[in-house]
Amino acid sequence: MKKIVMKFGGTSLATGENIRRVANIVADSVKKDYRVVVVVSALAGVTNKLIEISEQAKKGDEKKIQMFTKELAEQHLVAVSKAIVNKQLQKETAKIVANTISELKKVLTGICYVGELTPKSRDYVLSFGERLSAPIVCSALRDLKFEAQFFTGKDAGIVTDSNFGEADPLMDYTTHRIWQTILPLLEKGVIPVVTGYIAADQDGVVTTLGRGGSDYTATILGVALAADEVWIWTDVDGIMTTDPKIIPSAKKLYLLSYQEAAEMAIFGAKAMHPRALEPVIKASIPVRIRSVFHPDNDGTLITKEPEIKLSAIKSIKSTEVVKAVAMIKDVAMLNVSGGGMVGAPGSYAKVFEVLGKNDINVMMISTAVSEANMSLVVRRSLLGRALSTLEIALLGRGLVNEVTAEDDVCVIAAMGANMKGTLGVASRIFTAMAQKGINIRMIAQGSSELNISFVVKEKDGIAAVRAIHEEFKLDKI
Ligand code: ASP
Ligand code: MG
To answer: I want to staple 461 with a disulfide (CB 3.0 to 4.6 A). Which of 19, 226, 403, 410 is the partner?
Structure first.
């Protein structure tokens, strides 16, 4: 009997109707004799709203708390009434929602009076999104006459370090706990419904696993339960060769390696939480990305050695070098230059230290062996802060004599495991750019050779993606 952990994201749970659809998808799998553990995100947009209200509460805005909790209650109660038919179940679930919201209200009011929002209290507030969605999904399953039971990540036994906001699981202890809480239910044929994203540290204090962390919850559970597969249900058919909004002929990728998928997650292919693959890689548990709107579609399968399985599926060749191309917008490029950096150990470190201390994440770096200049890519919204902090800290100290920026650029990333060791990939990519008359402003290829990233003017971005998609015939993949 197959054991499957299924995670449903916020969009899949946006409304009561969607929640019913999700319950039916789970039901279909259970009828096929799968043992299913369900992991749920908060309803669409709720986590963002919780972040906002916690900031407002900190500023002392008590009126907003009133309004917010009222709206949140309404949103969830409407979902309850649409997702569940049985009146008694509706009533019970509505009561859980009401109790949970009144607890949230107390927490927010507390923050409001103290005027302080710590990483710890923030995680506590953020946990309410999933604490509200899980009981509704659980009742929707009961409504379909399945035995189901909901758990918070904490009650399920997911134990993390105390790194609030980006906690990581203590896997051995977690596994031990999950064997006590979830496994016996699963063996009895009960469907456990677990809140994604939230867990608790060793003292039982609520933690969160980072934004989009429900994926991570699913893979943690998958590993702890030695599941056959982890399915990430979302609103797209799988991981695509590129954004279909840019290129309508973009194709779904059937199979990817963990490495490739991780690479794409980082490049915002909207696939996954960046750390979510870590536990399953070690345990070699396959992950599947699939769409709640097309449950007949197999989605994208992410495994250890997709090449072997690839050849088993007819009509798919495993020779593609570049498998996907992405455009990352809303970025800016900084150029830091100065003769003082040449041959001066620690000079690059100073640049990164300044940026790091000011919470500016660097997405891409490239330097020339002349050492006299360095190019960096950061989020566009952080450009102003990056420029001013670098100027204040470094200019006129004999190291850096100029910091310039371009904010009308985008990053193009071409990815694929077979790029490693294949000759001529870079040449094909850059020849394709030259043929379209696209100028390249900056290039980076890590030694993993899994991706080549480069910067072009934003106006050339779509043409660049299209040129690579054509050059590597990705619409025929
Ligand atoms: N609700 C959380 C978030 O929006 C976790 C998740 O959706 O996976 O980040
Ligand atoms: Mg979400």
So the answer is: 410
First to last CA, the chain: 33
Counting from 1 in the atom list of ligand 1, the atom nearest the Cα of 129 is: 1
What does the alpha-carbon distance between residue 289 and residue 295 come to, in Å, rounded to a whole number?
A: 11
Cα-to-centroid distance, 197 and ligand 1 (Å): 6
Mean pLDDT over 462-467 rounds to 97
pLDDT tens digits for 401-444? 899 999 999 999 999 888 888 899 999 999 999 999 999 999 99
**What pLDDT is attached to residue 208?**
98
- CA 44 to ligand 2 centroid distance, Å: 6
Residue ranges with CB less than 5 Å from ion ligand 2: 10, 41
Cβ–Cβ under 8 Å, residues 208 and 197: yes
pTM greater than the 0.90 cutoff: no
Q: Which ligand is nearest to the CA of 214?
A: 1
Helix (H) and strand (E) counts in the chain: 17, 17
Nearest to 138 by CA among 153, 129, 127, 149: 149
